[in-house]
Amino acid sequence: MQAWRVHQNGEPGEVMRLEEVDRPTPGEGQLLLKVRAANINFPDALLCRGHYQIRPPLPFTPGVEICGETEDGRRVIANPALPHGGLAEYVVADAAAVLPAPEALDDAEAAALHIGYQTGWFGLHRRARLQAGETLLVHAAAGGVGSAAVQLGKAAGARVIGVVGGADKVRTAQELGCDLVVDRREDDIVAAVKEATGGRGADVVYDPVGGDAYAKSAKCVAFEGRIVIVGFASGSIPSPALNHALVKNYSIVGLHWGLYNQLDPAAVRGCHEELTKLAEQGVVRPLISGRVAMKDAAGAVQRVADGATTGRLVVVPEGEGR
User: How many angstroms separate the CA atoms of 191 and 159, rounded?
Assistant: First the structure.
């Protein structure tokens, strides 16, 4: 079969190689899955660079979530078992963690429903306890992780303010349903949020960016607000001033979705049921900006690494891409 492999760490476009390899062999409790679509995530770029919290042995295949097909023909979504990641024609995955693909979504959309939407759901509902009528501030609102949070925030009845960079992403965030979009390249984020909230600030902040985005969030979070730390796409990990959190009375909460997979898999399955219902109702639908042919996967991972995409890029092994 064909698979993209990384033999040394570096930039995805430089270190990923498309090779002919043997199909992975499922171990005890695992399933062999044919890959129908593989969603590209920022962690795939971090894996290539050797900067992710999990460091599979070299060589490895990136790709942390897929829509696949079981040997008996069921369409499922899964997290492949590294080092045999999803940018391949076949993967293995733990049978207990495989979930049914929502019928309302095509393969590319189903592949993109899992990690980003699960992260958003747990971040907004389990960690931040977002309530209807509250104001939600989402950084990188036109990206894969941010766009999921925007849709989930609107589904929860929140007023959503999206922060993006550039006119194209402003349009994307508006189309996603943001009540207000702030262009960080042109606008003062703090002033815009305070003006939109009558000086109160955002009740919940969803931050997959870190760095300056976090610093701005701390300046415009509301009394008893919650800042959800999802990731550090900027490459800069902030050092929160805890005295500031104390005097302004806000919470800083972390969200590592992988721990739910390990420690509370029943909650993950329950979340998937909720997401499936929302997809069937048409309330959430992953924003797919491109379906990419297998031969173009390395370039697509590099584009995600560079922050040059909106929504999701998904590799479709048997498709031509578009």
Answer: 17
